[in-house]
Amino acid sequence: MILAILSGFILAGCTPFISKFIKGKGSLLLPLLPFGLFVYFISYLKEIGEGQTFKFSYEWVPSYGINFGFHLDGLAMLFALLITGVGTLVFTYTTSYLKGHQYLDRFFGYLSMFMASMLGLVLSDNIITLFIFWELTSISSFFLIGFNNDDPKSRKSALLALSITGLGGLFLLAGMVLLGFVGGTYQFQELLSQSNLIQDHASYGWIVGLIFIGAFTKSAQFPFHFWLPGAMKAPTPVSTYLHSATMVKAGIYLLARFTPLLGGTPEWNTTLIIVGAITMVYAAVHSIFRIDMKGILAYSTISALGILVFLIGLGTEASLLAAGVFILVHALYKATLFLITGIVDHETGTRDVTVLSGLSKVLMPVAVAAGLAALSNAGAPPFFGFIGKDLIYEATLAYGNWAVVLTIAAIVTNVCLLFAGLLAGFKPFVGPLPSNYAALHLPHPTMWVPPLILAGLGLVFGLFPSLIEGVLVQPVFSSMVIEGAPVHIKLWHGFNLVLGLSLLTLTLGVVLYMILKPSSLLFSKTLKFEMIAPQTLFGIFGKFFNAFARFWTGLFQNGYLRNYVITILGFLTILLAYRLYQGVNLYIDTAQLTSLTIYEVTVAIMMIVAIIFTVFSRSRLVAVASLGVMGYSICLIFLFYSAPDLAMTQFSIDTLTVILFVLVIYNLPKYKNFSSKAVRLRDAVLSIFFGSLIAILTLEVLAEPLNRETSIFYAESAYLLAKGKNVVNVILVDFRGFDTMVEITVLVIAAIGVFSLLKLRLKSIEKE
Amino acid sequence: MKTIIFKTASTYLLPLLVLFSVFILLRGHYLPGGGFVGGLIASIAFVIHSFANGLEQTKNLIKFHPGFLMPVGLCIALISGAAPLFIEQSFMTGLWFENPIPVIGMVGSALFFDAGVYLVVIGVTLTIIFTISETL
Q1: C or N terminus of chain B, fewer CB within 10 Å?
Q2: What ipTM is given for this predicted complex?
Q3: pTM value?
Q4: Which residues in chain B are closer than 8 Å to A741, comparing Cβ atoms?
Q5: A67: distance to nearest CA of chain B, Å?
Q6: Closest approach of chain B CAs to the CA of A721, in angstroms?
Q7: Per the CB < 8 Å rule, is B36 touching A733?
Q8: What gap in Å lies between CA A392 and CA A323, rounded to an integer?
């Protein structure tokens, strides 16, 4: 299992080395990986259908309770099959779509990385690994959206998508950690048994809120939806794979997965219903005003995601079943429509529905696939979409007092979605064929076969729902509803209200399609509302944030060493002063002090004189030399109080420091007074304060009872354990050898820094 | 600063100081000293030489770029730390030869580690000082 998940990462890691192979004929071999995985998951289908689940566990960070725990049940199975199945088709499609692209290898690398992270996400049992895979999907999505990295718009969209989903990811992490903290474990299956405990806990509201933000950002729910239309800048295979079939459903997966654990409370249900309903209606209405095929599909995807959130929010058995089925329905028809958009774009060079028409005459199989998908999307019998929509209406109608409102919302959404589907899947293929498209010819079969397969499945599942009822729908349902009745899905329910509503939707949608012609005029009218759109608000927030960050950084990171020192010392002074204000514990035992010797007095006088010279000298060289004298005096003090190691090191360091100073000073302009009297006074006051505080602090340390445990340990163990008599050295190279190792590494980095800074500058000067 | 006395003295000082620095390095485990101080002393020796005879002379004397010592030293330190792994002990366990070697005394992995530190310090100090004096 772990190999199945990691294989995508392994392939992604290999792509740079086999790039020639991929760009040549080798690309046709790549779809074999998702296909192999697809077959692998299919092999578990029978057992899953019988109600079994599979657990795989590998240790990772046992001390924190994080392991690679994988759990394969119905819900995970549905997503795994979608990921690998649609993945196979998208990989195949890409071999033609991006044929000859100079970064084809990179693209496949990102794509397989994404596939692997997505698989890891849906299979993870441990909620921390789930989060890690969640973030990996965001990151791989960032690379895929920004794949055309020479286009500034593409880069901007990628950044927007990453910042929204990444931000949501952080909230999700907080939610997960809190959940693990409350539940006492990070294993989802173990958490499940403590559902009641968690729901009664005081932090329940926080957990739910944080997880919601994570799920809403990922699944493009209002008001975080706006990154998804932008993400359509990505190449079409990416839009198909990530932004319709799999990644955006990660949030839905999360909600479905957590329903048995956190669901069933008013907080959970009401929030989801409201957010889902707003999203589905808002986006559906938006979608009918678009003229770009991808834009239409983007908004209808958001709307479909809204429906899913809404259904999960209803939380009844009927609605969860509807959600499970609709995930599959939507993936099938939406992926098809996206792939078709890609073909149309690839062949004609435009995605504008007002221009496109009559393409069925030249692209017949594509038109067939598009027609099938549009019908499944419309929910026309006998398509799978019909079953999906029936289930939705059944769910809303059964929802108590609010049934009427919710059903109307669902109808409005479905009518708009139907219209959008016809616009993207039907309109470009009917009518007269413009003369400039007459020369078009069918692309390579690797491009038009995948959408045909997907669209065909939409019809097959509709005609024979029993194909997936037992093996897939039932297990999916059981993972969301722990003790539910056995489900049964069928095409024909007899003449009832649901059928009436379905027909009403169909009629209204077709009528709308007849009346409302897409035009750029209509589209431009919607742009007037951009002012109050969440996207604009988010942009304003971003600008403000940026400005504040710049101000803040400029305030503290102003590039002047003196200001840094002042800030650090000033802050420390305030901190220390506050600490000392609370009470000073000064106690000096005069009896224990040894009497002053003549050389101690001499050294002290030397130091004072050196300080006076350093501060008041008018020559740099004198100041530096006095600093050196100061250092050497400290060396002497070390020596008096038996720290020869320190003295030696200090001595060498001081020598080198003076040498460095002299080297630099040699090249500085003449000594001048740049600072005003006031500034110097300020610096003097700060220095005096800081120095006195440190002095008081040092004296205070003396008052503390001395704890010699550490030094005794080192003194005793140095020879026994490390065979050394010089304790200082033994600590450096043995007891704390690892520290030393890191320190010398840091030294090397500093040296490389100095070297590259100075040498690079020199080179650029030489060039000029 | 190219006085004759300084120049002549530096020619003798260089080998003496380097020898002294090695001495400091070797005695580190028992008496004051060690790789860090040893490295600093050796660097001072080279810096004095460069002051007296000019940077080019010193560079010619060393033959290779002092920065080269940094990775070498790091590798020696790392290998001496990793050596215990091969006999299934944890990272940085002190290993010692059974018998003392004449002149040097007891030899163990700690000494090699210290030698690594010694080389890194020389490399870092000389790289920084040479670069600055060359560029400015």
Answers
A1: N
A2: 0.88
A3: 0.70
A4: 77-78, 81
A5: 24
A6: 8
A7: no
A8: 8
